[in-house]
Design goal:
The complex is a heterodimer of chains A (257) and B (166). With 257 residues, chain A is an alpha+beta fold. Chain A contains nine helices and eleven strands. In chain A, helix 7 runs parallel beside helix 8. Chain A starts with a helix and ends with a helix. Chain B has 166 residues and is of the alpha+beta class. Chain B is built from five helices and eight strands; from the N terminus they run H-E-E-E-E-E-E-E-H-E-H-H-H. Chain B is globular and about 40 Å long. Classes of the chains: A alpha+beta (257), B alpha+beta (166).
Chain lengths: 257, 166
């Protein structure tokens, strides 16, 4: 990679004031007036591209994912779909956390703008999650229940108490035991489920409750307390339910008297 | 919403680490090493604090350690109160030069009352109290009053052969 060619390519663009300095041998950090919400500059590096020739690689050495992980982990199918969509739509790629985009040297300015936009979308992914996947969690949970837990004969929308208006999202059955599965996204659903569980317990219904959260950390403290007091088992994110619930159901059925 | 004094009180009130993920050392993934801590407030045992610890594996001077607080307020359920950063590089064109030096980000009452569901730690100050990742951790745990950190970070108190030596 000829860094002088990169500098020359920037000269006749609005990026002529951007600076490049060699932070490590062959790793040039870009200094540009593009910032995160907290005022830190976005981390963009220019390195040699494996494509060779006139190509250079813009990358971040994992800085964007690291920053995102301060407050938000890509740890569910819904979040991974959003994350992958952002990268694809930005024309970027990712390799073990390193976000990158290969571009022709002569188009480095356009590449920088495109890559900086991608970095900012990644680092602000939590906003996308709220705005664009309102129903994705419940869809994912429903798919999971009917595929991964099909052997437990899931029944939707059971109303176990005739005079109580709230029901059970899915009822699973194993060894003649009932398992009530509730999906919880948001404080309102958490409160409603907690109250329903209390009513079912007061009526002495025989069941084990399995509460599946989109993200338990998103709940308020009070809602987490309410639901923890009344739920038999909680899964903080959907993946925990997928990985552990089948074994839990068999174990609970074996220990119930 | 929290005012500046309440923010400072939350930062400085005594806390205790109760859980560390991973239990020992750090987890390496996506070109970083990381661990996450759950903390309880010593005065009432409330599990309302967490800490994230991150260090980039390519540029080890890029690290970040932050204290997060669960407010109990559904509008702003969780906020990063303070975040200790290493430098982001060696070159900065910003007036405060913060990009090229260790610095501390802090949330303020202005951000807390802005109406944002995710108030940002926009206030930042340069610091010369640490330059390495290990020094940062010691300074951080001292400032946020976590006296039991050596139980979870034994390497921070053992020191290395040349600690303190020119």
């Amino acid at each position: 990679m000829d860094i002088h060619s990169v500098r020359n390519a920037l000269q006749n663009t609005p990026a002529s004031a951007f600076e490049l300095y060699e932070r490590r041998p062959g790793h040039f950090q870009l200094i540009l007036p593009v910032y995160h919400e907290d005022g830190d500059m976005v981390d963009i590096f220019v390195v040699e591209s494996p494509r060779g020739g006139e190509y250079i690689r813009l990358c971040d050495f994992g800085m964007s994912l690291m920053r995102l992980s301060y407050t938000y982990d890509v740890n569910s199918d819904a979040r991974r779909r959003i994350f992958d969509s952002i990268i694809i739509n930005c024309g970027a790629q990712i390799d073990d956390g390193d976000l990158y985009l290969d571009t022709l040297t002569e188009r480095v300015y356009e590449g920088i703008m495109q890559f900086a936009g991608c970095v900012q979308k990644i680092c602000n992914m939590r906003y996308w999650n709220r705005e664009t996947v309102r129903s994705a969690f419940y869809e994912d949970l429903e798919n999971c229940v009917y595929t991964d837990f099909a052997r437990f004969e899931p029944q939707p929308d059971l109303f176990p108490l005739a005079d109580y208006p709230s029901g059970v999202d899915w009822t699973l059955r194993h060894d003649n035991r009932d398992f009530y599965v509730f999906g919880v996204r948001g404080n309102d659903k958490a409160k409603n489920v907690a109250i329903s569980l209390l009513e079912f317990q007061k009526a002495q219904l025989p069941f084990i409750s399995l509460v599946v959260h989109e993200d338990i950390e998103e709940l308020g403290r009070r809602e987490r307390l309410y639901i923890t007091r009344n739920a038999d088992t909680q899964y903080p994110v959907l993946r925990d339910f997928q990985e552990k619930a089948a074994d839990d159901i068999r174990r609970f059925a074996g220990t119930m008297t | 919403m929290l005012n500046d004094q309440q923010i400072q009180d939350l930062i400085s009130q005594p806390k205790r680490i109760v859980e560390k993920d991973p239990a020992r050392g750090y987890r390496q993934e996506h070109r970083q090493r990381r661990c996450d801590l759950q903390l309880e407030r010593v005065s009432d045992g409330n599990l309302c604090f967490s800490v994230f610890v991150r260090q980039n594996l390519t540029f080890i001077e890029n690290f970040s350690v932050g204290l997060r607080y669960r407010t109990g307020n559904p509008t702003v359920p969780i906020v990063t109160l303070i975040r200790y950063n290493g430098p982001h590089g060696e070159f900065s064109t910003q007036p405060d030069q913060h990009y090229a030096q260790p610095h501390i980000h802090r949330v303020t009452e202005v951000e807390m009352s802005s109406g944002s569901a995710h108030p940002q730690e926009k206030d930042r100050a340069l610091t010369n109290r640490y330059s390495t990742f290990e020094e940062c951790l010691r300074a951080f745990f001292g400032d946020v009053s976590v006296p039991n950190y050596p139980d979870y970070f034994p390497d921070l108190v053992q020191g290395t052969l040349f600690d303190g030596h020119p």
